[in-house]
Amino acid sequence: MGKHVVCKVSELPPGERKIVTLERRSIGIFNIENSYYALKNVCPHYKAPLCKGVVTGMTLPSKPKEFNWGREGEILRCPWHGWEFDIKTGKSIFDPHKCFVKSYEVTVEEESESVETFEVTVELGAVVVHI
């Protein structure tokens, strides 16, 4: 898969998401506290548009009669059947070793004002552009 610029940092504030199509794949990009994550926009259960689901938190391990809520903004719930996935890893909450969605690397890079250029050579009288 190639490298694709999807938006400026200012266009995706913390807690927001953006769904894009890259190389014929629907992918959701999420900003969690200024760290960026990308997941394939397909739930493995029934192929629902996963990244359109609710972003929430989850209950954490706790002592009896205690209720600990955490990881707010890190859990994605499928809009069709409620399956939950960790946005940071793509792993499901109920079975992280067997059920997951594809995740993609996301980087933040400095914007360049330069124009894209390509190497041009002359070979036996023909002009050739190398992309």
UniProtKB/TrEMBL annotation:
Domain Rieske, residue spans: 4-115
Pfam families named in the record: Rieske (PF00355)
Keywords: 2Fe-2S, Iron, Iron-sulfur, Metal-binding
Gene3D superfamilies associated with the record: Rieske [2Fe-2S] iron-sulphur domain
GO molecular function: 2 iron, 2 sulfur cluster binding; metal ion binding; monooxygenase activity; oxidoreductase activity, acting on paired donors, with incorporation or reduction of molecular oxygen
Domain of life: Bacteria
SUPFAM superfamilies linked to this entry: ISP domain
Protein name stated in the entry: Rieske (2Fe-2S) protein
Organism: Peribacillus cavernae
